[in-house]
Design a protein that fits this description.
Layout: E1 4-11, E2 15-22, E3 29-32, H1 35-45, E4 50-52, E5 57-60, H2 63-71, H3 75-86, H4 95-99, E6 111-118, H5 122-135, H6 142-149, E7 163-168, E8 171-178, E9 181-188, E10 192-199, H7 214-231, H8 237-249, E11 252-254, E12 257-259, H9 267-282, E13 285-287, H10 288-298, H11 308-320, E14 324-326, E15 332-335, H12 337-352, H13 355-362, H14 372-391
Antiparallel strand pairs: 1-2, 2-3, 4-5, 6-10, 7-8, 8-9, 9-10, 11-12, 13-15, 14-15
């Protein structure tokens, strides 16, 4: 095996990097830098406060300046870094060779372009990424790859077009391949969605390898990140919808007034939302007595059995959750746009989703234990119990 010599260095502007020299002609060398470390050094030198997220940035006191510093990492700066350290480190070309014109020229062996989207609620990132994996397993197909990389894919296009879901420990990652390049996406440090395009051969995009082409390559890399997110946009609503759903499931406090949750499976909540839709279709607005009169039959009661206090409690719940609003200078209410959408979705989903029939099938009292889903549930239960017995774990 031929020896290689590694120099691990720390630069004032670029932070940690390494240079690797081959010991055989033509004495190839490799320079490896990390743009995030360069950015951290530049922010520190300017006294800008920031919080690191591994090899990324979680937050920064001056985002605009941070973006300007990122844009300033040019091919010329990288070339100057190499020349600076070649003057300091021993390498295969002595001064007489350099005078004769034997000098290192930078080319791009591998380039990574990343987009890190930090989420204010980390759990939403996990939910989003689970949806991404579930909904985008076909991203590796040629038709989808051509959308992400903005390149035409034909039958003669080299490379394997595939989507891979790789699990490293408990953190899954999504990989989309195009020729010798790929996009990797994962939930970084449990706090951010990381999308990064790695280009291993610039000629995949009809671009030369010289360092002067970095700017053009950069446009392709960052555009690929954005296009991947555009393709995945169908799954974007999962964390917006998750927040909206959880808001309904929890009590709220508005201007010092507290209202209980509007739980999805609560029959009274379903009855209230049915009544709101009735008012929209029939009269548009409603009063305290209207709600009492129409809600009682849905709950199997008479209007007289619902106390005025209980109806006032329900009106406050609907109002503080933003589903209804009080008409100024009156005692009447009307449903809001958000209330209309929520009522339609809640009631239709509750009525049509096979939650109750499914639970009936898998319950101990199912009418037909030979149904496939009931048999599968029973098989899984037996397998788990056997594993507990084998491992001598308490139930």
């Amino acid at each position: 095996m031929v020896n290689h010599y590694y120099f691990y260095c720390v630069d004032e502007d670029f932070g940690p990097f390494f240079l690797k020299f081959g010991s055989y002609f033509p004495y190839n060398a490799k320079l490896c830098i990390n743009g995030h470390e360069y950015l951290k050094r530049q922010l520190t030198k300017r006294g800008v406060k920031f919080e690191a997220l591994d090899n990324g940035i979680k937050s920064c006191a001056d985002p605009k300046l941070m973006q300007q510093l990122c844009d300033g990492l040019s091919a010329d700066r990288i070339d100057r870094l190499l020349r600076k350290w070649l003057r300091r480190l021993p390498h295969p070309f002595p001064p007489r060779d350099r005078v004769a014109g034997y000098r290192y020229a930078l080319s791009i062996l591998q380039a990574e372009f990343s987009l890190t989207q930090v989420l204010d609620q980390p759990v939403t990132g996990r939910i989003f990424f689970e949806e991404v994996i579930r909904e985008n397993l076909d991203l590796g197909r040629p038709s989808q790859v051509s959308l992400v990389f903005d390149r035409k894919v034909i039958r003669r296009t080299p490379g394997r077009f595939r989507t891979r879901v790789i699990t490293d420990g408990v953190v899954p990652s999504l990989h989309v391949d195009y020729k010798k390049s790929r996009i990797k996406q994962y939930h970084k440090e449990g706090q951010a969605l990381r999308t990064e395009t790695t280009i291993n051969d610039t000629r995949d995009f009809a671009i030369g390898r010289r360092i002067e082409n970095l700017q053009e390559l950069r446009k392709i890399g960052f555009a690929a990140n954005r296009r991947l997110l555009d393709v995945q946009r169908i799954g974007h609503d999962c964390f917006i919808g998750e927040a909206s759903f959880q808001d309904m499931q929890r009590p709220v406090t508005v201007d010092g007034q507290r209202a209980a949750a509007l739980r999805f499976a609560d029959p009274r909540v379903q009855g209230l939302l049915h009544v709101l839709l009735l008012f929209v279709l029939v009269q548009g607005t409603f009063a305290h007595s209207d709600l009492r009169e129409h809600l009682a039959p849905l709950l199997g009661q008479k209007p007289s059995q619902l106390t005025p206090g209980r109806i006032t409690y329900d009106l406050r719940r609907l109002r503080l959750h933003g589903l209804i609003e009080r008409i100024p200078k009156s005692y009447r209410y009307r449903i809001t746009a958000n209330g209309l959408r929520t009522a339609i979705f809640y009631t239709r989903l509750y009525n049509r989703a096979p939650l109750r029939t499914g639970l009936a099938i898998i319950s101990q009292r199912e009418t037909d234990y030979k149904l496939p889903i009931a048999k599968s549930i029973r098989a899984a239960e037996v397998a788990v119990n056997n594993w507990y017995d084998d491992e001598k774990l308490a139930a």
